[in-house]
Fold this sequence. Notes:
Layout (H helix, E strand, L loop, with lengths): L23 H15 L3 H6 L3 H22 L4 H19 L6 H13 L4 H15 L6 H11 L1 H11 L4 H21 L1 H6 L7 H7 L3 H5 L5 H21 L8 H23 L13 H17 L7
Helix pairs in contact: 1-3, 1-5, 3-4, 3-5, 3-6, 4-5, 4-6, 6-7, 6-8, 7-9, 8-9, 9-13, 9-14, 11-13, 13-14, 14-15
Amino acid sequence: MNYSFPSHLKLYGPQNRQPVPMSLDASRRYCRALACKHYENFTVASWLLPRRMRQHFANVYAYCRWADDISDETADPQHSIRLLNWWESQLKECYQGEAIHPVFVALSETIERFEIPPDPFIDLLRAFRQDQCKTRYDTADELLDYCCYSANPVGRLVLYLGQCGDKIRVQLSDSICTGLQLANFWQDVANDWERGRIYIPQDHCDRFGYDESMFARHEFNDEFRQMLGAEVDNAECFLRRGLPLVDLVPRWLKLDIALFVHGGLAILDAVRRQNYDVWSKRPTVSSTQKFRLFVGCWWKLRHGSLGIAL
């Protein structure tokens, strides 16, 4: 089968299966390089982590990065599904102690060290497969079900790394991750439309009188403003409900979690500052704003509880 991969994935794609596993040290380096190259916040976030944890976070990130690229960069849904199936087969080999791909050689060490089950890794692939065939959501419940697989597993993986994945903390983490996913959706309404996707539930569109022809015209009107305003408020509720998690994780993880939450809130504020006009310009958080968030969260960590709003 002729697979077509993004350039940075070609070397280790299914068409170039390695005859023997890459060494553990080389696999670790590969995951670190991938994380730093393709995730602009990873280098900053890694400074906040104990040195003993940075490699493990890079390993988990590398798995997610590969799955995401397989899903979105091939421009062929059926092709992407075949590649996602191949990626899951590599995961199964990893759990059977037969890892060959460099991501899984490194990840196997993390899985063993923190006793991570396959479920969160597999759940992410389920979401990526769904993206290939489902581009509209009838109800909010359908969208939240998607978030259970597209976003929440990432938070659960972080809790495994923090060795603090009890029921209460999982629920709080799920709320944060769902809120972040929704914030990203409302930031990227225009980009998602260009990819053929609408994440605003259809029943919400119907309630506000905003139909698909208006999406096609990138029409910004009162109906769209009110509709997106309601979505933004809902996403904020999810983020704030999860904020108490900051005070329930190990100290070394507090600042990272706080930055994720407040970063999501900053995205929502950016949407509001544009009066919800995400058609003309994608809302972003500036480097200055990110620095202020970092300082604010760090200050609260030094002087009291982070599990409250800044």
